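Bug report (template v2)

What were you trying to do?
Predict the complex of my protein with NAP.

What happened?
Run completed; filing so the output is reviewed.

Input:
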Amino acid sequence: MQGRPTIAVIGGTGDLGSALAKRWAAAGYPTVLGSRSKEKADAAAREMNASHGSAVSGEDNRTAAAKADIVVIAVPYANHEAILNEIKPAVTGKIVVDTVVPLVPPKVSVVQLPPDGSAALRAQRLLGEAARVQSAFHNVSASKLKSGESIDCDVLVFGDDKDARAIVIDLANAAGTRGIDGGPLANSIAAEALTSVLIGINRRFKVKGAGIRITGIPTGQPRDPA
Ligand SMILES: NC(=O)c1ccc[n+]([C@@H]2O[C@H](COP(=O)([O-])OP(=O)(O)OC[C@H]3O[C@@H](n4cnc5c(N)ncnc54)[C@H](OP(=O)(O)O)[C@@H]3O)[C@@H](O)[C@H]2O)c1
């Protein structure tokens, strides 16, 4: 891969997906918005380009995944499995970044563990070992990302492939957050569960973007130094 990798955001018309896409496009990553409808993706890309002068394109989800080097999944948990099955043929050998939190309405502020252990482990099971599944961005709110400012928030990155984790940490940094190596994919449930805690904090404190900050890491060493 020469230059910056192309990123496809599956669910790129949504709250989190569009906010991340805008930030990556602004940071110089070729970015493709994926949608169940190419027309909807095209319209979202046009709007983004008009307001931000970027060069984002729109595709149906599977074509977006096929065009990208890195595929980010930002769809509701209810549609996670269907979307993973749809894009599976297009992600062999690619880094797939799952942002999905296993929220089950109406009790989204209560941690509910999914049958696979976590959404990320479900993604790895459904996509198979040929996909380099990482998970991240569970604890940063779309509203903060949309603010356009640097964000006082850490993003924990999980995955069983250390090189891929480092690439996703770079993406978290490029989005204006601080990426932190959270270790293997099995640890993803910690961040996925924390989202329900943050939703509850948002409600109780009447705020939109409660997030997390890891303390004790020397400045300039955002990654696992080992
Ligand atoms: N929002 C946040 O602040 C935030 C923060 C951390 C993590 N997350 C996670 O990120 C994922 C996306 O969250 P979001 O808030 O961005 O969701 P959203 O705006 O409701 O949906 C994202 C996109 O998913 C697509 N989609 C596919 N199947 C769908 C269905 N059955 N119903 C509705 N939309 C469907 C839609 O795109 P098309 O119609 O174009 O296909 C939609 O624009 C979730 O798993 C969430 O837990 C969100």
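What did the reviewer find?
The helical segments are 15-26, 38-52, 61-67, 80-87, 119-127, 142-146, 162-174, 188-205. The mean pLDDT is 94.
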